Amino acid sequence: MSIAEERIERLHGLAREAATEGEFDRSREYVRLARRIAERNRCGLPKSFQRSTCDACDVYLRPGQNARVRVHRGRVIVRCHDCGATERYPFD
Ligand SMILES: [Zn+2]
């Protein structure tokens, strides 16, 4: 694992903790920092991290807390309660 990937993993944990504590703006800072590191190193965010973040407002999504997750016609639909955006992706 590269240093960039390790930093991204650490930021993933921090973003999750911040969101769990209701510190959504702080979770955004961690998500944005992780995205910048991923871009600079062209390594991308791990899928699990990518799908736990809102593409519209960068908040870390915690189902039951600031997000609602549904499965509809084989797709996962995630709604961010913080900004109202909805994301869909194939169920896998
Ligand atoms: Zn959002």
From TrEMBL:
Class of this enzyme: hydrolase
Single GO biological process annotation from the record: tRNA 5'-leader removal
Gene3D superfamilies: 6.20.50.20, Immunoglobulin FC, subunit C
Chain sites annotated for binding Zn(2+): C54, C57, C80, C83
Enzyme Commission code(s) on record: 3.1.26.5
Keywords: Cytoplasm, Endonuclease, Hydrolase, Metal-binding, Nuclease, tRNA processing, Zinc
Co-factor binding comment: Binds 1 zinc ion per subunit.
GO molecular function: ribonuclease P activity; zinc ion binding
Family, per entry: Belongs to the eukaryotic/archaeal RNase P protein component 4 family.
Name by which UniProt lists this protein: Ribonuclease P protein component 4
UniProt organism field: Halogeometricum borinquense
Gene name of the record: rnp4
